[in-house]
Amino acid sequence: LRRQARGKRREVALGIGDDCAVLRPRAGEEMVVTTDLSIEGTHFRREWHPAESVGHRCLARGLSDIAAMGAGPVAAFLSLGLPQKLPQRWVNEFLLGFLTLAKRFEVTLAGGDIAESREGVVADVMVVGAVPRGKAILRSGARAGDVIYVSGSLGGPASTLKRMFAGEKVRAKKNERHFFPEPRIAVAQKLRGVATSMIDISDGLSVDLAHICEESKVGAMVNELLLPVARNASLEDALHGGEDYELLFTARENAHVPVEIAGVAVTEIGWIERGGSVRITDLKKTRALKARGWEHFVR
Amino acid sequence: LRRQARGKRREVALGIGDDCAVLRPRAGEEMVVTTDLSIEGTHFRREWHPAESVGHRCLARGLSDIAAMGAGPVAAFLSLGLPQKLPQRWVNEFLLGFLTLAKRFEVTLAGGDIAESREGVVADVMVVGAVPRGKAILRSGARAGDVIYVSGSLGGPASTLKRMFAGEKVRAKKNERHFFPEPRIAVAQKLRGVATSMIDISDGLSVDLAHICEESKVGAMVNELLLPVARNASLEDALHGGEDYELLFTARENAHVPVEIAGVAVTEIGWIERGGSVRITDLKKTRALKARGWEHFVR
User: Half-sphere exposure of residue A202, counting CA atoms within 13 Å on the CB side?
Assistant: First the structure.
């Protein structure tokens, strides 16, 4: 693992093998840090998700948080709790999924910890990223009159999950975003200086838009007719499904926001208003958009 | 929690409440990062360890790693997996133990994650520290002829653990180092420019000295007669017990190392040799010092 983990990032002055890793931010940069805990039964099921998908998903959650700040990833840290009876092969495939994604984004695995868990796999992933000083895109920058945008399409992963809950055996293909979500790092970096606020959609559009509104002390109106609902997904999936790992952001009305960034569609879906209420309209009727949390696999 | 977490560290530009925390290292400093996974049944038992002790211990592990680099702590991140039936009071007391220790070392709780675990408490703690650029004390700097030192005393926590395994009910007093270990941050910072290599004793002297020897490509000789064995502890506890969270370090033969640093005794316990073998002597007989791992509570 130590050998595999040795990456080329110059910011990682010292990786696995000492009491700590040593990170050396470049001049004029600050570091962003996120941590995501994934627990078997809550965030994934071994009978549904191949180990490679679990490894990919655990790291993708963190990379998506880095993207949501407009930052670029630098290093990852992996803490693994493994039940005694877990086959070594499962661990190897988990690491394959994790390290393949890390390599693609030039993220160095710089540390971690392994311990025995009593039941089920536990993976806590910390990702450190870098962003030019003062340029991180926060949740708190939205202002009344800003336009709301979303990258890619929404609801696809939730619709896949629904099929599995209905008993369907879904093959974990590499292009199936539920199994192999794609963090929007490249899109996010192009949004620095453009987006006034940003978040990644992990809990569902309704919840994550509410987070932006709360932190920015504003309200929002979503135009239902504009929502980029994924093929095979319902409006419900797109609004509340979660695990899309798309970027939800705002920009000034007069800002130039391309309809495609880094090969990913960017869609205008509404606007920011005064007040604190989040609503949705089909231009005939308007209703409150209730924040309905992503409840993982606990049902 | 968010309110409690707001610390005063200037290096934490943005704490809990966004997709990531933002850390702003001071000019000329680099960051050290460590992560420690603590799992109920493996690292602690709810029937033995009060929640306050568990919270303290989880953070102390990370702070001790920061000390082992000669660094100072800045921010902590806490990922908690909690079983559904866990009383809220347990969580509150865990946080009390965690945050009391954090406050004492001026560490800001800058982020984290909470999820439901199927069985048992899981706590992954990440600590970020700062050290002047290039000044981190590594495991790899020991050279033949260096003197080996250890802070404090050894074996105390292991002897407490043994008593509990023997069925004794031990009260978790604040001055009982098994329950409330003391990270040697102040000692460590005084050792920058003095220590040639350093590690904290978490797995036991025999294991951690072997780590220094391996990374430095040297051997070592421990003088059994000099070991600062804790009161009520055996030589065995001191050599292999673990969880001492004392500092084990080397310095050049001609370096000035005080016998007490920041109120903590510092004891010379042996010397570094060429070759790769780690041995122990009572000046009559010499034998190999086998690295016997700390096996936590799995017996």
Answer: 22
Q: Do A124 and B35 touch (CB under 8 A)?
A: yes
The answer to whether A266 faces chain B, any CB pair under 8 Å, is no
Neighbours of A254 (CB within 10 A): 7
pTM: 0.94
Flag if A129 and B20 touch (Cβ within 8 Å).
Answer: yes
Nearest CB to B77 within list A33, A136, A140:
A33
According to the model, what pLDDT value does residue A3 have? 56
| Residues A137, B18 contacting (CB under 8 angstroms) | no
Q: Do strands B122-132 and A286-288 pair parallel, antiparallel, or not at all (unpaired)?
A: unpaired
Q: Give chain B positions within 8 Å (CB) of A35.
A: 77, 79, 111-113, 124, 126
* Secondary structure letter of residue A119 according to DSSP: S
Give, in degrees to the nearest 5, the angle at Cα A292 between A290 and A294.
160
pLDDT < 50: residue spans in chain B: 295-299
Each residue of A17-70: pLDDT tens digit? 999 999 999 999 999 999 999 999 999 999 999 999 999 999 999 999 999 999
Residue from the list A24, A33, A43 with its beta carbon closest to the beta carbon of B110: A33
Number of residue pairs across A and B with CB atoms under 8 Å? 203
Phi-psi region of A37 (alpha: psi -120 to 50; beta: other; left: phi over 0): beta
Gap between the Cα atoms of B231 and A65, Å rounded: 49
pLDDT < 70 positions in chain A:
1-8, 293-299
Contact of A184 with A67, CB cutoff 8 Å: yes
Rounded to a whole number of angstroms, the distance from the CA of B213 to the nearest CA of chain A is 12
Among residues 168-227 of chain A, which lie with CB inside 8 Å of chain B?
A: 198-200, 215
Question: Which residues in chain A (27-56) have CB-CB distances under 8 A to chain B?
Answer: 30-43
Q: Is B295 part of the contact surface with chain A (CB cutoff 8 Å)?
A: no
ipTM above 0.95, yes or no: no
Question: Cα separation of B212 and B141, whole Å?
Answer: 8
Check: CB of residue B216 under 8 Å from CB of residue B141: yes
Question: At residue B268, what are phi and psi to the nearest 5 degrees?
Answer: -75, 130
Angstrom distance (rounded) from CA A154 to CA A236: 10
Report the distance separating Cα A59 and Cα A77, nearest Å. Answer: 9
User: Which tens digits make up the pLDDT trace of B179-220?
Assistant: 999 999 999 999 999 999 999 999 999 999 999 999 999 999
* Cα–Cα distance, A172 to B191 (Å, whole number): 52
